[in-house]
Amino acid sequence: xxxxxxxxxxxxxxxxxxxxxxxxxxKVAVFNRSPARTDEAIKEAGDLAGNMIAxxxxxxxxxxxxxxxxxxxxxxxxxxxxxxxxxxxxxxSQGDIIIDAGNANYRDSVAHDxxxxxxxxxxxxxxxxxxxxxxxxxxSIMVGGSPKAYERVKDVLNAIAARYEGASCCGYMGPAGxxxxxxxxxxxxxxxxxxxxxxxxxxxRSGLGMTPAAIADVFEGWTKxxxxxxxxxxxxxALRSVDPTTSKxxxxxxxxxxxxxxxxxxxxxxxxxxxxPASAIAAAVEARGLSSMRxxxxxxxxxxxxxxxxxxxSATPEIIADIEKTLLTGKILAxxxxxxxxxxxxxxxxxxxxxxxxxxxxRAGCIIRSRMLDSMSKAYSATPAPESLILDPxxxxxxxxxxxxxxxxxxxxxxxxxxxxxxxxxxxYLQQLRTSRATxxxxxxxxxxxxxxxxxxxxxxxxxxxPWHTGAE
Length: 473
Ligand code: 6PG
Prior knowledge:
The protein is α/β, with parallel strands linked by helices. The chain has three domains: 5-176, NAD(P)-binding Rossmann-like Domain (Rossmann fold, 3-Layer(aba) Sandwich), CATH 3.40.50; 184-434, N-(1-d-carboxylethyl)-l-norvaline Dehydrogenase, domain 2 (Orthogonal Bundle); 438-473, Single alpha-helices involved in coiled-coils or other helix-helix interfaces, CATH 1.20.5. It has 19 helices and twelve strands. The strands form three sheets. It has an eight-stranded mixed sheet, sandwiched between helices. The chain has a two-stranded antiparallel sheet with strand order 8-9. The longest helix has 33 residues, at 317-349. Bound molecules: 6-phosphogluconic acid. 6-phosphogluconic acid is lined by residues 103, 129-131, 187, 190, 259-261, 263-264, 366-367. Homodimer. Its EC number is 1.1.1.44. Pathway: Carbohydrate degradation; pentose phosphate pathway; D-ribulose 5-phosphate from D-glucose 6-phosphate (oxidative stage): step 3/3. Keywords: Gluconate utilization, NADP, Oxidoreductase, Pentose shunt.
């Protein structure tokens, strides 16, 4: 046996991870349910195939691996993971490690850890972000599971991860479940960030009458400022692309109906479950959902007429700077919400999630990599760590400076019929948080009137009821 690790599942992510591992000098055994895919992967690997061992049967795979065996699964989340584990199990020895590196629900990872652990095997639930390119040249890696199992594969995972100023973007998040929980929230933030960029695009496109190419130029400028990020960069790329068949901007021929595989929704569900507001993430998930309700959209469009989107102004540098600050406000708040869910999950499950480390390993490799994450890692390195990113003095200062622009732009957007659900959710969240007197006093009154739920008074201790006006006096 000579392979350090196995990669199972030779679709593009698995293949790229295997090549990445081989390139870093490790021997990797590769396996796919249909053996033809394994051979294709070896062919594609070229010179790197020297460090790869093609296995066509599970028996060959097991024989190729150094004990305790480390088997990394890169198969579709859900049923395919369960089936693969069931197929492997009869061949494993005590102490062998199954690594689920797909976009699993963290609850599944907790269950796998329990079930495999009871049979003497080890399990790691590992979040991998960075898409195909990341898998091939350096993803962000979020590991959950026993430290002992991590120790066995630490060198491989750290070697293949992205680097930020030389530091590996692979980190140990905590027990099984923690890795996939962190990856899920990464994706929730990813959804919010993408939706907000799209909303800023919409404001410039239909609110200022700009062309995709002109908006690409604006976004390119933003890649040099506080919004510098991979998602801003690829938005430039997207808006500059032209459809070869129609010569129209490529975005204009894309059906406006967004797909989703579950991680964004899970983030919103976990947030609700934990009682943490993550309104910007939820709004982004809902925006994708609404976009795909095509027949309802058409019916409403027919019944009420097209949204009469009026201009919000003309494309002056001032208004564009205001839109940049609006996006900055929304983005800080969406990340703050995402980190709050992480912090709440950490408390709830007793995981002790390393928030500063999470921000650090998200600085390169993953889809939400951005300049802002470096500041976030610094914010969470403070002792004590801030209760919310909003309370970090630098972010508080940025929000304070940008908020007037956001209020102005979102006011114009709503008044002129432009949908901006994620940006407004984020800003409403901040407005609610900073208000010194919320209007739920009336909600408390209603609860007491219909259900005698009682309320606290601002001037006296204890529980109080009414007296309520009966209509008789
Ligand atoms: C990543 C991505 C990746 C994938 C997600 C999102 O971090 O590399 O998040 O995991 O793109 O599955 O996909 P959906 O948008 O289809 O939910």
